[in-house]
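Hi R.,

Here's the input for the magnesium ion complex you asked about:
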Amino acid sequence: MLLCSRRGDLVPAPILSFPSCNLPEKLLQNLEVAGFEMPTPVQMQAIPSALIGQNLLVSAETGSGKSGSFLVPIVSYCAKFNADKPHGERKPLAMVLTPTRELCIQVEEQAKLLGKGLPFKTALVVGGDAMAGQLYRIQQGISLIVGTPGRLIDLLAKHDIELDSVSILVLDEVDSMLERGFHEQVMQIFRALSQPQVLMYSATIPKDVQKMANSMVKDLTIIAVGKPNKPTGAVKQVVIWVDSKQKKQKLFDILTSKQHFKPPVVVFVSSRIGADLLSEAIGITTGIKAVSIHGEKSMKERREILKSFLVGEVLVIVATGVLGRGIDLLHVKQVIVFDMPNSIKEYVHQIGRASRLGEEGSAMVFVNEENKNLFRDLVQILKSSGAAVPRELANSRYTFGSSTNKGEKKRKYGF
Ligand code: ADP
Ligand code: MG
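And here is the predicted structure with magnesium ion in place:
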């Protein structure tokens, strides 16, 4: 672990094993079955704090086990609270908000795994699936709601759902939620609850997130594991200077090279139409099975695509930002950033998909003059990770832009 800092009152000592923190026996068994032999660094710090009710703002690298660090306390709390409650009397006790449907699905799946065999049921509240079914599920006595802010507001506006018992609110990938304009919706949901414990998570923590956290709760404990706003050191970044017109050919070259193609691969592009066209072109030109995934596809399609990818039927996924955040893509060790995203933070998240728990992965990144706004930040990131900087990038005047330019960027990206 690189560095770990925390600020706040009376912070408990980190745990070194799961059995040391008084968790229900069945939860310990579930952790074992899931292959969680030891807590990860962020779990060592965040679990004991969350268990004693502290409000947390947690930053840790992508793939470092942040979901487990809020789900273990949630499952433990709910299982203990429900221990002697008949099924009909159970009410929502915890809520997790995330910016995307995919991430919600993944968090809910992990929650189910950890809560198996315990008095703990979950409900998923995301767009794309019928609301009636989601409402029915909530009325069946679930303990955890996992949802996107927009859909949840929709549901709360149309139906009377009792939220008085919700005692834990998690905001996962909170910086991304703010960037996507969910601030007011998140606050609306927060105000509908009765002063819950708040746990906020992200790989990157800009100033506006800290401000929001302080406006929601007093006594905020901040936990930072690793270097915030930096990419995980486990992903080797290879930046390739390539003109826009040549990008497709370059990609085909990589995908058809035994040495360079390490499937399954995620290719990130900037638009939905671009994702569709590129996945088609890959199939036609290289014969490799590729599919696209983006926000215009239905929930069912997106689920099926991810499944076929995870079982190895599809080797290449061409994705827009929907896959950039928080999704754990098991087995993926290679990411190709075909179009640089709009911010360096998004870039950090995208290349993070190539690694979990410090396993090595690689990111091939296409860059050219069109990405000049990011040159300065990109070069800094590359240098701090010990990655090579292509000559064109190193020599560009945009890499050494004026200080006014820097100020603008600072405001725009928040760090
Ligand atoms: P993050 O939210 O920090 O990006 P995740 O919570 O999605 O990371 O976890 C990344 C991967 O690590 C997942 O596959 C998860 O199942 C696995 N994982 C999490 N905690 C542990 C642990 N203690 N031991 C083993 N694997 C773990
Ligand atoms: Mg996560």
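One thing worth noting: The domain at 4-225 is CATH 3.40.50.300 (Rossmann fold).

Cheers,
M.
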